[in-house]
Amino acid sequence: MNNSISKAGSWSPRMRLSKRLREQLRNAVASEGADHPPNQSVLSPIGVSLAGVPVKSTKRQLDEIDQSAAKRPRLSTEVEGERAEPVGKTTIIQHPKPKPPHAAFLEKSVEPFEPRFRSDSVDSFVYEWLESVGSDRNTHCRSDSCLNQLASEPVPRQLAKSAPQMQYTRDADGFAVPPKPVSTGSQSREDINSASVALSDVFTSGSSRAPGRSLVEDPAYRARNLVANNIYMRRPRDPMPEHITGLVNHIRQGRNSPEPSPDEVMQDGQLHDLSMGAGESDIETYFFAHIFPHFKTFDSLKRSDRQPLARNVVPNADSNLKVSIPLPDALYGYNDHDAFPQQQAQLISMGTDMLANSWNLAYPFFVIEFKGDGPSGSGSLWVATNQCLGGAASCVNIAERLNHRLGQCKSDKVRLINSAAFSIAMRGTEARLYISWKHDELRYYTANVESFLLQRPNDYLEFRKYVLNIIDWGKGERLNKIRFSLDTLLEESRKRISEAAKARPRPSDNSVAGSKRGKPSSRG
User: Fold this and answer.
1) 473 in the same domain as 343
2) What global pTM score does this model have?
3) Where is the composition biased (Basic and acidic residues) (predicted)?
4) Vertex 215 angle, CA 209 and 216, to 5°
5) Does residue 9 carry a pLDDT above 90?
6) pLDDT tens, position by position, 152-174
7) 365 Cβ contact partners less than 8 Å away, ≥ 6 residues apart
8) Of 18, 201, 340, 417, which sits most exposed with the smallest number of CB within 10 A?
9) Total structural domains within the chain
10) 232: in domain
11) Where in the sequence is the domain holding 232, given as residue range(s)?
């Protein structure tokens, strides 16, 4: 046995059997001794017969392998089963199969490495043997492996220097926009638009508005955005100012013009169809044809449909919570040229103070908001009311600009106009009429005047009466007072110019004579 060991030692002088390895070899001999005849021996991983007799076949296998110092560390032994093999089934020593190279920058995205060697297997035994003989595979192996790690230690996950960290794009407010998720199928344009809403929209509105929802649909819009800009909804029991109560009583008066009978309303099939569910365009088409008139080009009144109001006419209290730019489905006001033919000089001097939109609609007073309902629409009168609050307050704001100019006049003829405006939020079955006014220098109030169930003939006829009376008030009394106010402003402006001219010092006769004497003579 000593000879065998010395032979093995001459083959690999660096090999030393650790205490643990010697104990495992003795246990293997004890377990296998009963199964092997005396002339057979069990082969150890280092090519030494456990019975003290060298195995010739094993020696030949070792001779066939290049035993150079550079290649010896690449040897790995694969042992099948939990125990050592008999001599008849000799252990085969092979080169390890090289691992395919992988890019270091992918280490971040791969799953944690699972150790190849299990602590309870023979593979662990061979691995420990390689460690005990001082394998220097770390020096010569170029593959990206886990040789420096024990079986129980995870592989460290490090980023390669060439892999930059992911950069997020940022919106106009400086908030990070998350990257587009990996596609799991086809997506509609609506889904993409909803997902691409910037995060800053949540912070600037001061609420948790869902992506894709308009500002007027925000549950906090009325309580936060409108209130922050001094726009309030009044409760029914709150009293209204005297000039507002008088205006409401005026539009409640009966009319002498012809109107449909209750029977005709009951037999109106189109009106009945609206109660079964209709889209917003169908509701617009019906009520534009039966209740809301459209005026000719050269008429004093003008109706603009679905035109946004100018930003400078929307009430703004310098708050971070803004009022949504109104986009009324219908807006009544005046044709700036045909309604004020004698006041053009004054209007020109006022710039665009009186204009509501790019259609040159002047001094608007009546806002209408439609909503679809039923299977073809998802109308909400709460949202429509939010739109009325912003739109009507903007109309009041334009009229108050005129009152501000009138308040600076010293003439006894000056009379402030009633700056109130009306609005309607409606769908195919219901309509709500509101009136808005400016309470003081800051606050805008809106109150409900009436509500109507449109399939009831009496409610339908009442609704029609209110609408036409509001339009008549705008075309008659209100327009005349605005014209008078503009004439007053023009007269006051001319008076100031005349007074300024009179106050200017005129050259005296003495100064004229002195200037003549001071002239050099043309003679001599």
Assistant:
1) yes
2) 0.59
3) 75-84
4) 115
5) no
6) 444 444 444 444 444 445 444 44
7) 332, 333, 395, 399, 420, 421, 422, 470, 474, 478
8) 18
9) 2
10) yes
11) 224-498
